[in-house]
Specification:
Oligomer: heterodimer
Mean pLDDT of chain B: 84
Helix content of chain B: 10-25%
Shape of chain B: globular
Strand content of chain B: over 45%
Low-confidence stretches of chain A: none
CATH topology of chain B: outer membrane lipoprotein receptor (LolB), chain A
Mean pLDDT of chain A: 88
Number of strands of chain B: 12
CATH class of chain A: Mainly Beta
CATH superfamily of chain B: Lipoprotein localisation LolA/LolB/LppX
Distance between the termini of chain A: 60 Å
Strand content of chain A: 35-45%
Helix content of chain A: 10-25%
Strand order of the largest sheet of chain B: 1-8-9-10-11-12-2-3-4-5-6-7
Largest interface: A-B, 27 and 31 residues
Largest sheet of chain B: 12 strands, antiparallel
Number of domains of chain B: 1
Number of strands of chain A: 13
Order of helices and strands of chain B: HHEHEEEEEEHEEHEEE
Structural class of chain A: mainly beta
CATH architecture of chain A: Clam
Shape of chain A: globular
Structural class of chain B: alpha+beta
Chain lengths: 211, 214
């Protein structure tokens, strides 16, 4: 019984120190050898609203339709997903530290799912470089620049040419990590966004239709 | 009101126009029954419909519209094909108890029997297009109003499962041929979808292959 506190501390340490990004695939850059990049989610600066063709796979249940993501204030977005025939699956108001469900299609109205989904959407919509001082790595295979923000459990891949974010990995614990990829054509705003989270078996794809 | 005179002059112009805009005629139960019967007769003799459609999804909270377009095919008894051309190509086929969705290069098969929500939506769409929802007194409370150039039928769901998604379905029938001109699906969330049909071709001969599910 005496070892229980140590075991608990060790477990907490294990959960907080482990990351869903394999550090063996990254080589660390010495501190002071780089400047921290300035970056932000494509949904922050200059963004108003956009329409996306959407596919969503949750635990093998496939949904498709159209999503509109509208910035309603400096600190809130509306994320509305409806099927092609027009029936709303969900309409969520996403804020920096909370969400409000205007409507959720009953089969999806599960608090545990929504809690993680909110974190994933928060990562997508609100992430920026103002969240701390990062450690820099180079991904061994791709030679991509990766920045880690340990205080907020976040890894960011920055495209060297454009200076824009190409990938994000964020988590509240290492088991619910969300992985977001941004694909860009010539435009500054991504033409395709892929979001996955293995904890809730979620695969979400947003293909830009128009802004 | 800063300028009452201007207001009165404006009102003088607006008032004569108002009756034409809002012209409705309450129908007696006998008249409503007559219209309902006529719609039902036309429905029985309608073997197929081909029409263009414009679908407008109104998002009430954020005051935005999503507009889609395409071609629609219906063949008796339970075959529907929604061929969306904008804002992106998309195909939905309802073939009796099966739904097929083709979305760019991805295909999805849905069995209506195992998906209750899709089953209800399928039944509503087929019933709306055929006009048979009006006589579905088990699932809907129906009222008919004579509008200026259309009959408006408001259907309020009684069925609990439908009520979870839809608060009201409104069908607009053409007064000359009694076919559906417009369909409004009003959702519990306050959002609604309007589907307007045009270039309707009734009882044209097209084969079942349009509804074939690969």
């Amino acid at each position: 019984m005496r070892s229980l506190p140590y075991l608990s501390i060790f477990t907490i340490f294990l959960l907080t120190s482990c990351t869903p990004v394999k550090k063996s695939q990254l080589s660390a850059c010495p501190k002071g050898s780089y400047t921290a990049p300035l970056w932000s989610s494509p949904f922050l600066k200059g963004y108003e609203k956009a329409l996306f063709h959407t596919t969503m796979d949750v635990k093998g249940n496939y949904l498709s339709g159209i999503t509109i993501i509208k910035k309603t204030s400096d600190s809130s977005f509306h994320f509305t997903f409806a099927n092609e025939i027009g029936i709303t699956y969900f309409d969520l108001e996403i804020m920096k530290d909370n969400y409000h469900s205007v409507y959720i299609f009953e089969p999806m109205n599960k608090p545990a799912f929504l809690k993680i989904f909110f974190h994933d959407l928060k990562l997508l919509l609100f992430s920026d470089s103002g969240c701390g001082i990062p450690d820099k790595y180079i991904q061994k295979m791709s030679e991509k620049e990766v920045f880690s923000y340990p205080g907020v459990n976040l890894f960011v891949w920055i495209d060297r040419e454009s200076g824009k974010v190409s990938e994000l990995v964020g988590w509240t614990n290492m088991f619910d990590a969300a992985h977001i990829e941004f694909e860009r054509n010539q435009e500054a705003f991504p033409s395709l966004i892929k979001l996955s989270n293995s904890k809730i078996k979620l695969n979400l794809e947003l293909s830009l239709l128009g802004r | 009101m800063n300028n009452p005179r201007a207001f009165l002059i404006g009102l003088a112009f607006v008032l004569p126009v108002l009756p034409a805009v809002t012209q409705t005629r309450p129908m007696s139960p006998a008249d409503a029954l007559q219209v309902s019967k006529r719609i039902s007769e036309v429905s029985k003799s309608t073997l197929s419909i081909e029409a263009k459609f414009i679908q407008t999804k109104e998002l009430s909270v954020i005051k935005e519209k999503i507009i889609s377009r395409g071609i629609f095919f219906f063949k008796k008894e339970k075959l529907l094909r929604w061929e969306y051309t904008a804002p992106f190509p998309y195909l939905v086929i309802f073939n009796n108890d099966r739904i097929y969705v083709k979305d760019e290069d991805r295909e999805n098969h849905i069995n209506i029997q195992s998906n209750k929500v899709f089953r209800e939506i399928n039944n509503i769409l087929i019933g709306a297009v055929k006009g048979t929802l009006l006589s579905d007194s088990k699932n809907f409370q129906c009222s008919i109003t004579d509008l200026h150039d259309l009959y408006e039928s408001v259907l309020v769901p009684k069925n609990t499962r439908i009520k979870e998604t839809l608060s009201e379905i409104i069908l607009y029938f053409n007064k000359s041929d009694y076919t559906v001109e417009k369909l409004v699906l009003r959702e519990v969330s306050g959002d609604y979808t309007i589907i307007e049909f045009s270039d309707k071709k009734i009882n044209q001969n097209f084969g079942d292959e349009k509804f074939a599910i690969p």
